[in-house]
Structure to design on (750 residues):
């Protein structure tokens, strides 16, 4: 008789294959009470794994008394100090306890209001006895110009660090059992204190003391980290700081390892994928195009093209990232790859992040190709192909025509925005996908397009944002990197000046005069503003700062009255944007007042000057990208970064530059994109780098900073490569789970 199994309905069915992933996916409400689970949820903690990865921000021991003179109003703190004074005050209906903490030199007053509850106030006084060692957590307030705390959550500890009393929000603590060694101070919220989180973490740790590792033991051993269960104990119940640090590293490593395993897996499956080879076919489009090029290719362009052509000739899909600073000439490299694909019987698609950029690529490419882009017409040369533009805002009739020539295969080259990825899009023979300015793109969109072809197309991703290795192997770990280092010869100097308009008000008028002079010399200029109008909340609107609409009105009525000034921003109808961009490119406009729609890729070599208003609203990379719009021809350029923000502030060590001014100074100091990228990363938050949303941060990449923990990322990559070599089919349940979890996260994030 068959054995009948009854499914355990108390646990939700889990899709995870490994015990570790399954157990860690347990909802926190199975571990702590409902109200606590809810409060934890607000901190992004939903599962047992989230809770265990919600790490103390610091650890205190009984010997770490705080330097109270360093406290600043508004800081969220955890201070450890002794009670030197404690006194009940106020009339019977408004009793309060006033206590004072001291570190031996500076003091911090604490106030607790008890109303009529004499007993409660007495109880507090009983806890906060003179001489008691206390950890108080909360926000530093102000009373009579002096830092103080009102109703901090506090714990009383003994000299060995054991918690022996305290109060959490008017309620006696008593329950907290944290004992000995170090006391973890957790990121808390108004709904839940560090002490309650500590208690929850303790319960969580009890669930996993015997949890098996998701990876084979050699992984942690090679990396020199403790087993997963030991790491959880180490971070939540450490006896030494080294132990805690090693535990944290193990948890971070796991995140990096999961990402790298996913990348290694993607790389392997791309290699195993089948693509149509696109080898050289002499005497066709590419050769004709090359013979007509008005300038010689740089050595870098030739080198990178050779790498791409090698890839294209293989029966597996190319997966390549082309990294090259602003103005390094990536478009030609991409176009040559597209022409080779067409020569070999395929179609190529070029995806741009914005309509402005797609339209410009279309103009540039049809311009460079001349009659070679007139395929289908009678006058066209023999090998000519058709080049089409597809964007989301085209009329239905136009779109239909374009879709038809894509589906029939007459369009050899398709240029578009990600609207191209819409469901109805079909290619007759898609051979190559080029993604321009990938940092604006969801990483996953590549996968979406890949799925459209019977065979996988070759893929070339281009970015002008140079990125350090640890970021590259995380974001683009499935791609092979080519780098264009040099700029084409004959590029002129660009002078960049950061201007504090409060300190140098005359510079604003001077800037408009300079534009007039530049135009008189036959050149063109950009004026860039951080937002469209006062209520602008769009992606272009950076919140605050000058608006294009006001600036346009002000300049055309005043200082630039005699010039031909155009206006460009994302909310204009596409036709109008396109017409304005075209007029500027053709020299029919002298000045373009614009938002960041011109940030990437816009290429008008005659433009030599740029004024960026409220430049403090922009990040370093953005400023570098914007500045890259000028100095593209042979004429020297001038870029003015204007700011009305504070440039200096009073810091702990006297007057210092504000982060805003540091940013502008960095951009002023160098045009080297690689150098600026480092400075930029140092200032940015992780989520901005990975493009992952809050939701993404919540689960799988909670602890890892690919910038801060670069070494760990590289180590994880090496071990992930080995792991996949040993288990290419992901038969290890933990490996399969890791890859599934990261793939899901990346889908969600984009
Ligand atoms: P980016 O890498 O920023 O996309 P582009 O491809 O737009 O740069 O190229 C910038 C400018 O340099 C364009 O005007 C392009 O025509 C020009 N250019 C590209 N390659 C060369 C070259 N080998 N010699 C001279 N000019 C070039
Ligand atoms: Mg470009």
């Amino acid at each position: 008789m068959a054995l009948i199994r009854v499914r355990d309905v108390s646990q939700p069915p889990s899709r995870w294959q490994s015990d570790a992933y399954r157990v860690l996916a347990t909802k926190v409400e199975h571990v702590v009470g409902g109200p606590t689970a809810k409060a934890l949820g607000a901190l992004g903690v939903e599962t047992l794994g989230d809770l265990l990865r919600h790490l103390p921000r610091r650890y205190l021991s009984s010997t770490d008394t705080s330097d109270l003179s360093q406290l600043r109003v508004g800081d969220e703190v955890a201070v450890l100090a002794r009670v030197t004074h404690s006194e009940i005050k106020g009339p019977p209906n408004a009793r309060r306890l006033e206590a004072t903490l001291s570190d031996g030199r500076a003091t911090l007053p604490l106030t607790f209001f008890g109303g009529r509850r004499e007993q409660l106030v007495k109880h507090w006084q009983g806890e906060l006895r003179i001489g008691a060692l206390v950890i108080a957590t909360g926000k530093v307030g102000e009373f009579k110009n002096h830092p103080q705390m009102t109703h901090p959550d506090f714990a009383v500890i003994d000299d060995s660090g054991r918690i022996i009393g305290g109060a959490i929000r008017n309620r006696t603590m008593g329950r907290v059992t944290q004992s000995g060694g170090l006391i973890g101070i957790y990121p808390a919220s108004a709904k839940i204190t560090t002490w309650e989180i500590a208690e929850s973490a303790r319960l969580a740790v009890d669930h996993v003391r015997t949890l098996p590792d998701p990876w084979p033991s050699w992984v942690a051993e090679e990396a020199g980290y403790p087993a997963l269960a030991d790491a959880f104990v180490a971070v939540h119940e450490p006896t030494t700081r080294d132990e805690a640090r090693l535990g944290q590293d193990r948890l971070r490593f796991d995140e990096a390892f999961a990402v790298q395993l996913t990348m290694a897996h993607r790389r392997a499956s791309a290699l195993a994928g089948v693509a149509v080879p696109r080898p050289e076919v002499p005497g066709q489009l590419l050769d004709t195009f090359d013979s007509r090029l008005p300038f010689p290719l740089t050595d870098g362009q030739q080198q990178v093209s050779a790498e791409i052509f090698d890839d294209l000739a293989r029966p597996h899909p190319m997966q390549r990232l082309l990294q090259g600073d602003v103005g390094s000439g990536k478009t030609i490299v991409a176009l040559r790859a597209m022409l080779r694909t067409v020569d070999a019987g395929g179609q190529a698609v070029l995806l741009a992040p914005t309509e402005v950029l797609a339209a410009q690529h279309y103009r540039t490419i049809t311009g460079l190709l001349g009659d070679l882009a007139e395929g289908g017409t009678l006058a066209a040369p023999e090998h000519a192909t058709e080049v089409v533009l597809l964007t989301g805002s085209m009329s239905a009739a136009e779109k239909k025509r374009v879709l038809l020539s894509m589906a029939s295969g007459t369009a050899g080259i398709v240029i578009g925005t990600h609207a191209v990825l819409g469901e109805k899009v079909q290619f007759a023979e898609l051979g190559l996908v080029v993604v321009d300015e990938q940092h604006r793109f969801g990483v996953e969109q590549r996968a979406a397009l890949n799925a459209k072809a019977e065979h996988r197309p070759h893929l070339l991703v281009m970015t002008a944002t140079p990125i350090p290795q640890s970021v590259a192997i995380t974001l683009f770990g499935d791609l092979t990197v080519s780098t264009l280092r040099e700029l084409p010869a004959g590029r002129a100097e660009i002078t960049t000046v950061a201007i504090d308009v409060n300190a140098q008000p005359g510079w604003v008028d001077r800037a408009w005069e300079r534009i007039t002079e530049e135009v008189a010399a036959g050149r063109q200029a950009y004026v860039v503003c951080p937002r469209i109008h006062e209520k602008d909340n769009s992606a272009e609107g950076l919140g605050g700062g000058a608006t294009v609409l006001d600036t346009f009105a002000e300049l055309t009525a005043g200082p630039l009255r005699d010039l031909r000034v155009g206006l460009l921003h994302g909310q204009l109808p596409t036709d109008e944007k396109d017409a304005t961009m075209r007029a500027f490119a053709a020299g029919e406009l002298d000045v373009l007042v614009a938002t960041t729609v011109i940030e990437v890729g816009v290429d008008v070599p005659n433009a030599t000057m740029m004024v960026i208003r409220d430049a403090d609203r922009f990040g370093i990379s953005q400023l570098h990208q914007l500045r890259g719009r000028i100095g593209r021809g042979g004429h020297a350029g001038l870029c003015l970064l204007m700011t009305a923000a504070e440039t200096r502030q009073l810091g702990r060590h006297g007057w210092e530059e504000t982060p805003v001014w540091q940013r502008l100074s960095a951009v002023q100091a160098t045009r080297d994109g690689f150098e600026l990228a480092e400075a930029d990363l140092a200032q940015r938050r992780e989520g901005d780098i990975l493009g992952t949303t809050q939701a993404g941060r919540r689960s799988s990449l909670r602890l890892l900073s690919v910038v801060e923990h670069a070494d760990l990322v590289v180590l994880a990559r090496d071990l992930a490569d080995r792991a996949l070599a040993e288990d290419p089919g992901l038969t290890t349940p933990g490996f399969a789970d890791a890859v599934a979890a990261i793939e899901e996260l990346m889908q969600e994030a984009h």
About this structure: The chain is about 35% helix and 20% strand. The two ends are 51 Å apart (CA to CA). The first strand starts at residue 58 and ends at 60.
